[in-house]
Amino acid sequence: MAQPEDLLAYAIKLLKAASSHLEYRVVIEQAYYGAYHAARQFEEALPHRSLVNTSNTGSHDALFQRLECPNPKLDYGLKVISQDIGAQMRMLKPLRELATYELQEALRVDQAEETIAGAKDVIAECAKGRKKLQASPSK
Amino acid sequence: MNKVPKTLGGEVTDGINALLHETDKLRDGTAPEIQNLFERIRQLQKVDAQQAFLRFGALAAICGNVDDVFEYYRKALLLPGEPDTKHEFWVSMGNAGLYGKAQEIGTWLLDPRRGFFPKIWEQAVSIGQVLAVWNRLQEAKRTYPDLSGIDFSLVERAAAVMRERELSDEKIGAILNLMGEIQRAHRIMYAGRLASLLKVLRPPEEPPYLYFAMPLDLGVSEIHAMNRELARLVVEKAPAGTFPQGMVASFTKAQPVELRAAA
Fold this sequence. Notes:
Strand content of chain A: under 5%
Oligomer: heterodimer
Strand content of chain B: 5-15%
Largest sheet of chain B: 3 strands, mixed
């Protein structure tokens, strides 16, 4: 069974040997999905889920919308963490979509590095959120 | 960053452009080379106050002195030569990261009758004025037949996404303004000729959106730190604490081709 951190670690390992835009694409995808799964696990663990209607969008956009618009019943700290993760994921998403869908794009090492750095921050923020959830379980 | 246009002319303009050519870093207003230029502009002010205010504004912009940029703009507008004043300050506002204000001035300049459309439309798009450009394009093509040979398909696709997502130029400008705040805190202007590189993304099973990547001549770690700050600022200051529906923006490392474009 893989954890989000495993995907990120794999991306970091791949980047060490990567030298072509094809390899940078894979690095970006792995790092992004590490962040995505961490964000999803965090959002699903919240004691009060977002009330926003996401029926007309895709699963990634839906997750980000829920993170960006947390349930008002959540405590302030968790709301801020949720919105922060939402904003960070929004910023990572175009890099993953360039990597996955835009074959005419030549993906670069700096974009792979930026995605890894962003994914690290998202995973760290999710860990902070989990600690907060464990420390003060909301009803 | 963008060069101060040649219409400013003369020695001081050459001096400011030389500073812009050297680095994208915002300058220290107390540095001797800056003070020297200020002194020369003061001399110019005695013979042509409007031209002096344009230059004061350009210099204040590359020092990141926002209040001074606004003050010189206000003073220049009191004098004859409104089109030149607006064009020069449109550039200066962009160099200072004041993209919302640059949009406001750009709306005036983009009216094809003013004569600026052909030379500013691409930069206007890069500061988020997609609809302002698109909505004037047919009239501009009638006024400037040479525009018919230019590929505007990116603007067309971007405008279509904006209509679909109910996104406005002003909403984009609000996010770019936050990026400008971060740029000034890090003392850096955008690299190259365009403030951002626009892409229209249409991922399968997800709504389409615009992606504005602002190129910076910095290392990945500082660019990442700036992106992290942008996420925080969006939560703190953007309406609803989110990027507007239909767009996202981030800082990115400038590529050699963009740096060459600035030279």
